[in-house]
Amino acid sequence: MTTETAHRAGAAGNADGVGTWAVLLPAERYEAERLVHHDTLELTGLTDVSRPGPGDQVAVLADAPPRLVALGRVTAPGRRHREDPDDPQSPVEPGTLVVAYTRRAFDEPVPADLLTLDGPVTAVEPAAFRALADQLGPPPARRTWLVSLDLPIEAATPAEAVRLFWSYVQELGPRELPAFVSPAGDELAMQAFVLGEQANQDPEEDD
Length: 207
Fold this sequence. Notes:
single chain; alpha+beta; elongated
């Protein structure tokens, strides 16, 4: 199946004309999306004319092995490229694909071995897309969590300590700093997370 034929199959396969696609995240981008919450996913450098259009549904995949980590819909790029805050009039880079997340599964991805991908963006038959999305099941119930970050900081004043705190947070980020999380009202169930995964912070348990 050619790319153009696949595009027509994906875009016209649904009764409402909405295309269904799979987007493969580069390894470093997958890690960034897993560590920090974003409302949209922006992928640049996509010059192929056969790619999703506004309103199309997208399955966001991680590779090795292929697994579904999110669902979304293509939205029109904004006028400002958020990676260039010094130039608010700068346009979004050519070839940018913007996907607004509708469902995330970064913590519990599902296998996507049955999909055949032919690049970073692949048209998917609507039936295959629905079968993959159905594996996610209903979204889990939301609850309140208490998240904290404790850093011992030496400073002359409280204001200086706060400034140093934010400097450390920006410099080290979620890749190095442990964040502590517990369900609201159950602080004894607190867990530490580093790199988006639970991490043991008790040196005695490592011995």
